[in-house]
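anyone else get weird line breaks when pasting these?? whatever heres mine. first is seq + tokens for prot A
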Amino acid sequence: MLPPDAPQDSTPPDAEDTPSPKHRPLRSFVLRAGRMGTGQLRALETLGPRFLLPYRAELLDLDATFGRRAPRVLEIGFGMGDATAQVAAAMPGTDFIGVEVHAPGVGALLKHIGERNLQNLRLLQHDAVEVMTHMLPPASLAGVHIWFPDPWHKKRHNKRRLIQPAFIQQLVTRIAPGGYLHCATDWQDYAERMLAVLGAEPALQNTADAGGPGYAPRPDWRPLTKFENRGLKLGHGVWDLVYTRRG
């Protein structure tokens, strides 16, 4: 989930599609050189050591990480963290793991953590695919949030979209039976692609698949983001997809 005012990357998109000699895996994100404010830098310095986890290619002991046993929800791409902080504050009995590659967003969410005294959030500034693959134990998550991922709207870049069959096949192994996957996007063709990919995964059950198009109403507990509000004012649609993992 990228902030709408994030500075544009200077690398030509087509240059990123040129395979490197090392056959670097395709990424669903591009690192952008965002500027960090004073408050974000201070939060990173003072709160980072406690709430920002280092990436390691080993499984996390989630009970030790949070100091308790509770349901855990993963959020992939939290942008500037406004919605994440609101949800975490409203659900103190649930632990949240936020993954974001952009430093300003990490600093902004750490600032929210300090201002709201949130104890149920831990952050990772790393590629979500690698975090999922190497750090999250199987069936350890009660839920996953993927809200407004980069749509990669140009057709030649659609292959970079996060919601792909191979990714979903692996992600569902980290969700406990009965747990949920909640995606949201304001790009209709991406919503249709999400519906196709998630619908083809046998381990998932669509909660809104009762004769309709398969899209769910926005849950009351998902806050409207600034990005989403801006789009709605411009007449853009928003599509929520909520699936549960079969037992």
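and prot B, same format (seq, then tokens)
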Amino acid sequence: MFKTVLFPIDQSRESRQAAEKVAEIVQFHKSRLIIVSVVEAAAVEDIPTDTMASPDAVAKLLQNAKSLFSQQGIEAETVEREGNPAFTICDVADEIDADLIVMGCRGLGLTEEVSESVTNRVISLSPCPVLVVP
């Protein structure tokens, strides 16, 4: 049913927790797994290397995620992009013809902030179903 699964990641705990559900889905459906991470476009040159605005940090994050899935017998492809995270995730989903996006949620609840979250924007803009892992 889910031939291609897109897994957007960042350095959050929620993203790491969603990895387990991604592995289950990919193994069950024998899906192609694409891991995407976005270097935020508003990056400033003197931002520390441990933020999502650093291409080096994003490359390391993607390599670690690929290795984690490899240990579970899952071959994953990685995509690194620059831009607005929500729009970029949806663009990648469209480009690869994703059947499902699986992502973590920061669990902000029903507050004004939720409307501005990356997860909420992806849900609104996605060309395919989005599974949010709490």
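btw re prot B: The radius of gyration is 14 Å. The longest strand covers residues 32-40.
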